[in-house]
Specification:
Squ/phyt_synthse; carotenoid biosynthesis; transferase; Trans_IPPS_HH; globular; mainly alpha; Phytoene/squalene synthase family protein
Length: 356
């Protein structure tokens, strides 16, 4: 079969990335609908590669396989930056994104380093060590997203890393029980010692307890601090990009609120934000927003190397960007995404009423 013309091949890759995100990350897919078209497609390409990377390591059968997956991902990043990506939609889209937006190779390599820590089964002595992990697996993605949206200042990048780290801490707080049943532990070990919780005992039989609930609450308080710090960074983004990122922030922060409403018990069940609630939060994200945080606040120390990787590299080779849709067209995208969320809500309601 003859090769597709380049423009058709690129469109096919973008379509495949879009489908992967819609299936694997409905919250991000829905919030992403608020982004301008060119930014949205680049974001989906980036996230498709990040999700592929996460799945390859996560689904590996054993430690050796996980380390092999990390090695293969490191090679795939190198090939993408060399202009010879692996023959897969996510890799080709990723190569286009990092070239177009001058994303330093250190950022995706930091992400893979975080996955390597997972492959090692690493545990974290204290909050600072956990923040180093969060900076790699999520702060790096936040920084790459900021670059896609055209924000390259150190302050904007610091706030993007704050948002990524906040989301990762929320994930950890939500998934304490699920992770423990898979033999994983992310809670700071010094916190556990202070609460008289033995890590091995907990992993052998994960159960909710007042002591564990206090640790989850403490972790979510740190996430909330980072969400608040990130708010100023959202306002530093181009106006057309702010509603989508604010929506993603609100939806993730809501996960923490649901965990809190459940008595900080993230062992007995997994907190989920309903489609109806997402609808309300996305609508809220499109309204004017008052910022109380400081754009120039110090960066999270664990994320400083990510910011330095960007600010120390010239980026004069950025390709010209396609014209963005006018600001007034945001309303049409809002209507589209609200319709999407409403249909998700209706399917959820049907699923609850349908016989099992």
């Amino acid at each position: 079969m003859p090769a597709l013309p380049p423009e058709f091949a690129a469109a096919a890759d973008r379509s495949a990335c879009r489908a992967a995100i819609r299936a694997g990350s409905r919250s991000f897919f829905a919030a992403g609908q608020l982004l301008p078209g060119d930014v949205r497609e680049a974001a989906y390409g980036l996230y498709a590669f990040c999700r592929l990377s996460d799945d390859l390591v996560d689904e590996a059968a054993g430690s050796a396989d996980r380390h092999d997956a990390v090695a293969r991902l490191t090679d795939r990043i190198g090939r993408a930056y060399a202009g010879q990506p692996v023959d897969a939609p996510a890799d080709r889209a990723f190569a286009e994104v990092v070239t177009t937006h001058a994303i330093p190779e250190a950022l995706p390599r930091a992400l893979i380093e975080g996955f390597a820590w997972d492959a090692d089964g690493r545990r974290y002595a204290d909050l600072e060590a956990l923040q180093a992990y969060a900076a790699r697996v999520a702060g790096s993605v936040g920084a790459m997203m900021a670059l896609i949206m055209g924000a390259r200042s150190a302050d904007a990048l610091a706030r993007a890393c704050d948002l990524g780290a906040a989301m990762q801490l929320t994930n950890i707080a939500r998934d304490v029980g699920e992770d423990a049943r898979m033999g994983r532990l992310y809670l700071p070990l010094n916190w556990m010692a202070e609460a008289d919780l033995d890590p091995e005992t907990f992993l052998a039989d994960p159960r909710p307890s007042p002591a564990l609930a206090a640790l989850v609450a403490r972790l979510l308080a740190e996430a909330d601090r980072l969400y608040a710090s990130a708010n100023a960074g959202i306002e530093a983004l181009p106006p057309r990009c702010r509603p989508a990122i604010r929506a993603a922030s609100l939806i993730y922060a809501e996960i923490g609120r649901i965990v809190a409403a459940n008595g900080f018990d993230s062992v007995s069940g997994r907190a989920r934000v309903t489609a109806g609630r997402k609808l309300a939060l996305i609508a809220r994200a499109t309204r004017p927003h008052r910022v109380g945080s400081d754009l120039g606040a110090p960066a999270l120390p664990a994320a400083a190397f990510l910011i330095e990787a960007v600010t120390s590299e010239p980026h004069g080779g950025l390709r010209p960007r396609a014209a963005l849709r006018p600001w007034w067209d945001l309303g049409g995208r809002v209507v589209h995404v609200l319709d999407l969320i409403e249909r998700m809500r209706e399917r959820e309601a049907f699923g609850r009423s349908a016989p099992s």
